[in-house]
Design brief:
Layout: H1 9-39, H2 50-79, H3 81-100, H4 105-133, H5 139-164, H6 167-188, H7 210-214, H8 217-248, H9 252-282, H10 288-308, H11 319-336, H12 339-349, H13 356-387, H14 392-404, H15 406-432
Helix pairs in contact: 1-4, 1-5, 1-6, 2-3, 2-4, 2-13, 3-4, 3-6, 4-5, 4-13, 5-6, 5-9, 5-12, 8-9, 8-13, 8-14, 8-15, 9-10, 9-11, 9-12, 10-11, 10-12, 10-14, 10-15, 13-14
């Protein structure tokens, strides 16, 4: 392939970012319209039971999606990431379009399950695809595009469905946009084969060889780290607003504003973490990704604990009172997320190109599980402490800090990777030469 016909990395990543942005918007729209769906009769049940049926709209698609994500990872490794991305993009678009015209609960559940299967399954394919598109020294930014788009998709989805449009129009338009960006992404990435960015010809895929990479020290460390890494994120994503309202005595709008600003800072943190690491890698620092991650998590952890334990004047909502803890919340989210694009970059660097989809599928299962476990464990700790006589506000504080402190374990694992990652990366480069 001559230089003029080489796929353009910026264009491909831009189209990928837009695809991710809108399918994540489609995922998060449900939170904004769930009451409306019940009032319109699409979610059945009484005032006591309808939330159970509503929860199934999220739970069933994710459970099935997690179960099938390993298969999508294998298919991506066997038949190429572009084809599987296109298939999953089309399935997501059809799922969103079908949701927009659903007339009863079972149609709604069916189309949302189709969408959820494709959305959960596409993550490991994208992780592997980014490594095909972006060379190692640009991979942090490549993954930052994915992570930042996923975060911004949440805000856009809530606005589209909750503010701007009727939910049917919101799902219809989002489905069309997903289809519109899935197809150009497939066309623009023509020529991007497995190992393309590293100019490595992929060998024959053998599922039995996956075990070899799972035994790689750096891969093992990442997989051990991912559940304690994501449990705090799952807890914060669901209970942050409730924590601020109960602990500080502020209104829901004020709490939501602080959390929204912190969410935006997450997208900034993804980009900064990826860019800073890429720059150091280009200068030859093979330990740059663990170093940047360690620094970011330490700063973010200190800021987050400081925010959780902040001696806020209960019930006061003046700007001067809200500003200091809001800055701590923003800093906590932004610096901690320096690590996210580097996790994916490190994992892609220590696995041969033809096995990345499968390994990332295992990573994705653990990643999704951690996000689900955090919101489950947090209220259990709160209930246990309150049952022992502790006040609700103090129970929330100690429960939140205990879960966020799992990041200390992640720091220790990153420190271990300072030694294992350069060695494992060099070994993979040697195998590919």
């Amino acid at each position: 392939m001559d230089e003029g016909s080489r796929p353009r990395t910026g264009l491909i990543l831009g189209l990928l970012g837009l695809l991710v942005l809108f399918y994540f918007a489609g995922f998060y729209m449900l939170a904004a319209i769930i009451d409306t769906l019940h009032l319109e009769g699409l979610i059945p049940g009484t005032e006591e039971t309808w939330r159970f049926y509503a929860g199934l709209l999220r739970t069933i698609p994710q459970i099935i999606g997690i179960a099938l994500s390993f298969i999508w990872g294998i298919l991506a490794d066997r038949y190429g990431r572009r084809r599987i991305l296109l298939i999953l993009g089309l399935l997501m678009g059809i799922g969103l379009l079908g949701t927009s015209v659903s007339l009863n609960y079972y149609q709604l559940l069916g189309f949302m399950t189709l969408f959820g299967i494709a959305m959960t399954g596409i993550s490991p394919v994208i992780y592997a695809f980014v490594a095909d598109v972006a060379p190692p020294e640009k991979r942090g930014m490549g993954y930052a595009v994915y992570y930042a788009s996923s975060v911004l998709g949440m805000a856009i989805g809530l606005v589209i469905a909750g503010v701007l449009f009727h939910w049917r129009i919101a799902y219809l338009s989002t489905g069309v946009l997903v289809l519109l960006f899935a197809i150009p992404l497939f066309l623009a990435s023509r020529g991007v084969t497995i190992g393309f960015a590293e100019k490595i010809s992929a060998g024959k895929y053998k599922l039995s060889f996956v075990v070899k990479y799972l035994k790689t020290p750096t891969v093992l460390l990442v997989l051990v780290m991912i559940i304690p890494w994501t449990m705090p994120w799952g807890m914060l994503s669901l209970f942050a607003v409730d924590y601020l309202m109960t602990r500080w005595g502020i209104s829901k709008p004020s709490a939501s504003l602080i959390v929204s600003l912190a969410v935006i800072s997450i997208a900034v943190g993804h980009v900064l973490g990826g860019v800073l690491s890429d720059r150091r890698v280009k200068r030859g620092d093979l330990r740059a990704r663990p170093k940047i991650s360690i620094i970011g998590i330490i700063i973010g952890y200190i800021a987050m604990v400081s925010m959780l334990a902040y001696p806020y004047p209960y019930g006061e909502e003046t700007f001067l009172n809200l500003l200091p803890p809001a800055i701590l919340a923003i800093a906590g989210m932004m610096f901690t997320t320096f690590a996210y694009p580097n996790i994916s970059s490190v994992l892609s660097d220590v696995v041969k190109p033809e096995y990345r989809g499968t390994v990332f599928a295992i990573y994705n299962i653990l990643n999704t599980s951690g996000w689900a476990i955090g919101p489950f464990v947090y209220p259990l700790i709160v209930g246990y402490l309150m049952g022992g006589g502790m006040s609700e506000r103090d129970s929330l504080l100690y429960s939140a800090i205990s879960i966020v402190s799992l990041w200390i374990l992640c720091i220790l694992i990153w420190i271990a990777m300072l030694r294992t990652y350069p060695r494992d990366r060099e070994r993979i480069l040697g195998e590919g030469s």
